[in-house]
Amino acid sequence: MKCLLMLDLLGIDDQGEEAPEHLLNSLDGQLPVACDSESKDYQTSTIVDDKTYVVEGSEDGGKSWINVKIFDNLTRSWLIPTVLGMKPVQLQGHSTLLLNNGRILIVKKDYPLDDCIWFLEVDTPFVKEQKKLLGTEVVAWSKGVIGSAPKPIVISGPSGVGKGTLINKLMKEFPSKYGFSVSHTTRAPREKELDGVHYHFTERSLMEKDIRDGKFLEFASVHGNLYGTSIEAVEAVTDSGKRCILDIDVQGARSVRASSLDAIFIFICPPSFEELEERLRARATETEEQVQKRLRNARAELDEGRSPGLFDHILVNDDLETCYETLKKLLASDENANTLNQPTTKNLKVHVSHMESRADQKILLHCGTNGTGVKVPSLFMLDISSLKGGAPGRTRGLNVYTVESLRDGVNRIKQL
Ligand SMILES: Nc1ncnc2c1ncn2[C@@H]1O[C@H](COP(=O)(O)OP(=O)(O)OP(=O)(O)O)[C@@H](O)[C@H]1O
Ligand SMILES: Nc1nc2c(ncn2[C@@H]2O[C@H](COP(=O)(O)O)[C@@H](O)[C@H]2O)c(=O)[nH]1
Question: Which of 368, 357, 398, 358 is nearest to 35 (CA)?
Fold first, then answer.
């Protein structure tokens, strides 16, 4: 039904008829396409090679929707792509600009700067991989975030090595600095484990559906159960300004390594296999059969943990305090090396009328009055030269400047 409605807006039926002439004539991916401010329905078209990406939205009686479809300029037919990632909740109009790295920049009109910059990935490595996996056309949304965020930390290692113990110590000593990525799992809760705190305990069919819907950054079958990190789990921590810690198995670490998440990877080893077995039994949370299974898997994980290029650091958890101190030092030096550029609140509501791309990865956002009576600069500059991350998570590393025209053609540029 939804699909019919979208086609209807363009004045065509669902029998695969061509896009109307006026739309085709106006399609030009190289030029900024300004939105139609008179209309309640918002639509832009961007040409990428032989395809035209149409982003459209509408507000109808308080309900709003956003849709993406593709017009194949060779076969002259419409394609409905699989849409991944978290999409904008509302549009009150938007402008688009094709970037040269397989992304379309989308700036929402009349939204605070914090929530107005989005990317629609149409030909990035993530999208290419998903196209192969799903066998359909794929597009992926990613919200643009101003400034950089601290790198997430992936902690991996065999069951019983002490990952949870080390992470709990970090969280206890630095509650405002680190946040835990709460995974989903199909395993049953242990005594004292709380839903939403230690894990999101879920049913396999629900989790499989969410995986199909692209909600997971990674997932793996571990010791007979399904475990996974949702994109939301990581982004919720990162958005709160904390450094996100993921406690995941080696298969999961490998998937995250291959993803757009720019993380630091730490592998925890036991001092010996006998000590690992002792810790696992002493914890007394598993049946004998489960302990045997976890120990069998531990041998493979210990081998895999040493594979070149997978982990940045390997720590031996012999004496707990010594290992904890080493972990803290390692994280501190990594933080210093990646000086944090925490975003300040960007509450300014901007009404972008059009965008202009410059050769040096800077984009000029020309703004009109936003109707709130609050004076807002009429020109912003967006620096996209150091973007990090991307779909299925956020795109970070955006820098925004105000541009103020002074006399004699001199501009004053100030970073927000
Ligand atoms: N350095 C250490 N020396 C002795 N015991 C330890 C040490 N570190 C952790 N332990 C103990 O080992 C047991 C297993 O630790 P923990 O639950 O943190 O492991 P884990 O790696 O998180 O396991 P899993 O992957 O199954 O969640 C716990 O009872 C914990 O108290
Ligand atoms: N790939 C993932 N592995 C995960 C995730 N959350 C936890 N784990 C790993 O599973 C085992 C077993 O955990 P337990 O709580 O049942 O003892 C352990 O190695 C965890 O690191 C996840 O989201 N993805």
Answer: 368
This model of the complex carries an ipTM of 0.99
Q: How many CA atoms lie within 13 A of 56 on its CB side?
A: 20
d(CA 275, CA 115): 50
Q: What would the pLDDT profile of 226-271 be if each residue is shown by its tens digit?
A: 999 999 999 899 888 899 999 999 999 999 998 888 899 999 999 9
CA distance 122 to 119: 9
> 326 CA to middle of ligand 2, Å?
23
| 279 noted as active-site residue | no
CA–centroid distance, residue 107 to ligand 1 (Å): 47
Which residues does 156 contact at the CB level (< 8 Å), separation at least 6? 163, 247, 248, 249, 250, 252, 253, 265, 266, 267, 268, 301, 305, 311
Distance 273 CA to ligand 2 centre (A): 19
> Given 243, 294, 394, 396, which residue is catalytic?
294
Do the beta carbons of residue 230 and residue 244 sit within 8 Å? Answer: no
pTM score above 0.95: no
Each residue's pLDDT tens digit, 143-160: 998 887 788 999 999 999
CB distance 301 to ligand 2 below 6 Å: no
